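Q: My labmate handed me this sequence with no annotations at all. I'd like to see what the chain might look like in three dimensions before we decide whether it's worth expressing. Could you predict it?
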Amino acid sequence: KAVVTDANGDVTTGTIATDMIAANAVTSAKISDGTIVNADISSSAAIAQSKISGLTDALSGKVAVAQGNTNANKAVITNASGNVTTGTINTIMIADNAINSAKISDGTIVNADISSSAAIAQSKISGLTADLASKMTTPTATATGDLLKATVSNGTTTWSAFTPSYASH
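A: Here is what I predict for the chain of 169 residues:
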């Protein structure tokens, strides 16, 4: 194996084989800028993200990687506005208390979305008191202590005095 070099040490004739290069002899200065391509990088290289200039800034707000065994290596891609363009967000990826009214599309909450144990206060339901008031008339007692009975006919409620009767035994 013969290699001929010029006065600067550049190869002019022949080919340098891998076994002719000493370990750690090829440095950044020996590699022409812009000549390393994807095919030159080993698939097992495991290059640290910190070694790729600007990567953290370039990916900031664009990729959310799920944590945990069931979602390992799953990613959600977002655009510059933070809207998901690829992937699916699942509950494990959403921080506690991260969803507010602005994040829920108007008119999308249905009865099935409300927990049966929600115990929503009547004051939180707009117009509830007025709506219920129109459903039934309020009784007016004619004398202190009168018992009243409600009679509903064709959707109209009327109140009248009620006198209980007792059967003798």
